[in-house]
């Protein structure tokens, strides 16, 4: 049987990245799977090529409206819709359909935290699509519903989890992350005008209000077993917008426990990620940079002990649209359908 895959939100950045990756996926190249409906909202009725000129083979495909009728009859549906839109769409899809949601709607287990940061009713909680988190991979194998992580939580979690799980630092976390503009999606936003962005760097959502904070707390809370309720995990997170289209470079720090050495830290990361295809601890002395992971499903990490300040510092780089969304979504598809986890996904970046 050929698996039919629909992509809802195909005109967006996340939907476009999912399609870019699927066009090179072995299951689509050899006919085990094929692309069905490609849906949109305000741009329904127009050809995909008007919005995603880089997806040549799909240029003439006409976008249909994101609704139940158009998404019916597919074995797999990717949702790449604005926050709050996934719940109703997913509910109308049968339990046998594999639904992979790039939005935030089903990421959080804590309904109160959801309401506090998103201001709407909590839709529910699905298996969390970060296979590299201990225990997560098993829950994703064969899953019919997957919540793809946010881009900042992906890199922050992978950067700090080994340190916290090994008890090498206290969970009093400070993260500053430089991000490209595509993280905001492609709808017009005044602060993302070219003239405001070029030659500029600006902090936003400062002071504990960014939506990704509860997601990072949830993930890193699970690294500290004595803290099931995440009560003593604190996360100070400051995002900084920079003039680049893709990429996140995150500096993640936490207070080192007394007696911890640089060797302890490296050992923790080498052990945690020894078998992970998409997480690379760089050789000593080399530092992650966004260009090195551009277009790839990789996260690059480097860890240092700042002895004078008594802090662990981990630098992480990710392509927000690849491992930060579209690549993670395809990695989760592979796990859900029992395909090789890395099928269609590259660890090789685009540089310069
Ligand atoms: N960009 C990123 O780096 C990341 C994005 N995500 C998540 O992925 C999802 C999509 O983000 P992104 O691609 O950046 O966003 P975009 O703004 O680029 O795209 C949004 C898509 O949703 C469609 N859409 C707009 N309004 C509605 C609506 N009311 N109902 C249904 N569909 C609608 C748009 O269609 P049309 O063009 O026809 O109006 C478009 O296809 C979001 O939930 C986002 O949080 C997650 C991690 C990282
Ligand atoms: C530059 C910029 O605005 N970035 C977005 C990234 C969020 C994102 O894409 O993740 P979600 O799926 O959780 O929305 C932001 O900071 O809100």
Automatic annotation (TrEMBL):
InterPro entries, A to Z: AGPR, AGPR_AS, AGPR_dimerisation_dom, AGPR_type-1, NAD(P)-bd_dom_sf, Semialdehyde_DH_NAD-bd
EC number: 1.2.1.38
Pathway: Amino-acid biosynthesis; L-arginine biosynthesis; N(2)-acetyl-L-ornithine from L-glutamate: step 3/4
PROSITE patterns attached to this UniProt entry: ARGC
Semialdehyde dehydrogenase NAD-binding domain segment(s): 4-141
GO MF annotation list: N-acetyl-gamma-glutamyl-phosphate reductase activity; NAD binding; NADP+ binding
Broad class of where this protein is predominantly found: cytoplasm
Name assigned to this protein: N-acetyl-gamma-glutamyl-phosphate reductase
């Amino acid at each position: 049987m050929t698996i039919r895959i629909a992509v809802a939100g195909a005109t967006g950045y996340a939907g476009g990245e999912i399609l870019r990756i699927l066009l090179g996926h072995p299951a689509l190249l050899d006919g085990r799977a094929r692309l069905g409906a490609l849906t949109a909202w305000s741009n329904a009725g127009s050809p995909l090529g008007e919005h995603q000129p880089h997806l040549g083979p799909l240029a003439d495909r006409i976008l249909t409206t994101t609704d139940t009728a158009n998404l019916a009859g597919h074995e797999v549906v990717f949702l790449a819709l604005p926050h709050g839109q996934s719940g109703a769409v997913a509910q109308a899809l049968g339990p046998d359909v594999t639904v992979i949601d790039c939005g935030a709607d089903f990421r959080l287990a804590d309904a109160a935290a959801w309401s506090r940061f998103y201001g709407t009713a909590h839709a529910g909680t699905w298996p969390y699509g970060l296979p590299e988190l201990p225990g997560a991979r098993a829950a994703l194998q064969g899953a019919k519903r997957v919540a793809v992580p946010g881009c900042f939580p992906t890199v922050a979690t992978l950067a700090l989890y080994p340190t916290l799980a090994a008890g090498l630092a206290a969970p009093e976390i400070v993260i500053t992350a430089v991000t490209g503009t595509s993280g905001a999606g492609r709808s017009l936003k005044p602060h993302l005008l070219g003239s405001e962005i070029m030659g500029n760097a600006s902090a936003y959502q400062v002071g504990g209000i960014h939506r990704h904070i509860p997601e990072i707390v949830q993930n890193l809370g699970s690294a500290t077993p004595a803290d099931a309720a995440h009560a003593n995990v604190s996360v100070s997170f400051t995002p900084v917008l920079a003039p680049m289209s893709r990429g996140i470079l995150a500096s993640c720090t936490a207070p080192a426990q007394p007696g911890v050495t640089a060797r302890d830290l490296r050992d923790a990361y080498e052990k945690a990620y020894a078998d992970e295809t998409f997480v690379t601890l760089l050789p000593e002395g080399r530092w992650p940079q966004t260009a090195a992971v551009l277009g790839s499903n990789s996260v690059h990490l480097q860890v240092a002990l700042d002895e004078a300040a008594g802090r662990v510092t981990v630098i992480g780089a990710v392509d927000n649209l690849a491992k930060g969304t579209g690549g993670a979504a395809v990695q989760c598809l592979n796990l859900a359908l029992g395909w090789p986890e890395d099928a269609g996904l590259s660890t090789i970046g685009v540089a310069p």
